């Protein structure tokens, strides 16, 4: 399982190296219809949208980390999918945790097993605690480094705080 990002973030919070960002609770259902809440986001990187269950990592494909979608990227820049606060940036640069204004927390995880690159191929463009607007560049990716290492570029976008959410890119 590739849950190193979550483990690292929790260790940072527990050790005092990172402060958790307080955010209001996210809605689990649409109050008017009673249906699961639809979370409409800007697609965070250019590419083909693929179902989360097609991601070649069980932590994502099983839904264990939460619902979402994935992208087979063709672009090289990850942007904020909504107005948010950068809650955490993995030390290896491959994953970003965001808290949206409604309290929803997202994980954008670039590639599978890319934590093993120890930051090579990833250039963070923002820092933990930064407030960003939808479309703000968050991370530049050197695709040639990831391709040369033989890792999948598929990029899951997962809702960590709302197991009933339905994610849509638009």
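Sequence proposed for the structure above (170 residues):
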């Amino acid at each position: 399982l590739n849950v190193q990002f979550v483990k690292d973030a929790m260790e940072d919070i527990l050790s005092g190296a990172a402060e958790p960002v307080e955010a209001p609770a996210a809605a689990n259902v649409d109050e008017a219809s009673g249906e699961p809440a639809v979370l409409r986001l800007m697609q965070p990187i250019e590419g083909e949208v693929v179902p989360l269950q097609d991601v070649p990592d069980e932590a994502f494909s099983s839904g264990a980390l939460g619902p979402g979608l994935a992208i087979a990227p063709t672009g090289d820049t990850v942007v904020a999918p909504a107005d948010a606060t950068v809650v955490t940036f993995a030390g290896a640069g491959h994953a970003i945790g965001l808290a949206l204004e409604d309290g929803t927390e997202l994980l954008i995880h670039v590639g599978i097993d890319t934590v093993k690159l120890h930051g090579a191929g990833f250039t963070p463009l923002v820092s933990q605690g930064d407030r960003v607007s939808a479309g703000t560049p968050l991370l530049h990716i050197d695709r040639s480094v990831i391709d040369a290492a033989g890792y999948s570029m598929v990029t899951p976008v997962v809702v960590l705080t709302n197991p009933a959410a339905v994610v849509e890119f638009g």
